[in-house]
Amino acid sequence: MPSLAGKVAIVTGASRGIGRAIALKLAGNGASIVVNYAGNADKAQEVVTEIEKLGVQAVAVKADVSKVAEVQGLFEQTLKHFAKLDILVNNAGIAFYKPITQVTEEDFDRIFAINVKGTYFACQQAAQHMAEGGRIINFSSSTTVMMLPSYSAYVATKGAVEQITRVLAKELGAKAIAVNVISPGPTDTELFREGKTQEQIDHLAQMAAFGKLGEVQEIADVVAFLASDEAKWITGQNIRVNGGIA
Residue 199, exposed/middle/buried by CB under 10 A (0-12, 13-18, 19+)? Predict the structure, then answer.
């Protein structure tokens, strides 16, 4: 019996990259999936089709997580289709890399709106609607401890997510809801490659103990573990899935 049979999961930002891999992994373990996307309906529907081939249910739901009303709508649609929620994966996020002197107010507001506000209010909805014993899995980044020039705004958002996770783990413990955060290292996705030269990408890959970029499946595997009953005694933790980057 698949370990997540009968469970319902929302995966934000699930139309591509790490989110897509997570949605497929959880579905492969038996969970029904809400494939959240912000703009690319065709890509999201492709993920739904792949999931349905695995013999489980899926639905694509459009929602810009930077807008609270749309986050609320995402949860309303989830409950309408599946009548419950067991797992929330807050994967949706953006990144940019600029020296602090070049960061605009618009840059700052947008990255915080998606990476922090989106995560926070999705957690708020989960706190209200998630079944007892549920799982919330947030996303940070191993760059929060790496002191990389031009990453200041990005790591500020991820540091906020780490602290939200710690507090909510205690706050939601009475409902046996486990709240953890995953901090990937450099992982080979479109988002990661955006705005980087090949030289920068190669340098980051070599910083890992294994001398390579992470792969989306390696992140998805850890999410699936945290979503499972085998991880029920793990909460408030930051799991650095980074190949030993330092």
Answer: exposed
Q: Are 136 and 177 in contact (CB under 8 A)?
A: yes
What's the CA gap between 54 and 30, in Å, rounded?
9
Q: Model confidence over 218-232: pLDDT tens digits?
A: 999 999 999 999 999
pLDDT on residue 246 = 72
* DSSP letters spanning 126-181: HHHHPPTT-EEEEE--GGGGS--TT-HHHHHHHHHHHHHHHHHHHHTGGGT-EEEE
| Residues known to be catalytic | 140-141, 154, 158
Residue ranges of domains in the chain, CATH in brackets: 8-235 (3.40.50.720)
3-state secondary structure of 26: helix
Does residue 197 sit in helix, strand or coil? coil
The Cα 246–Cα 234 span in angstroms is 24
Q: What is the pTM of this model?
A: 0.96
Q: Compute the distance between CA of residue 20 and CA of residue 46 in angstroms, rounded to an integer.
A: 10
* Cβ proximity of 26 and 227 under 8 Å: yes
132 vs 239: CA distance, rounded Å: 23
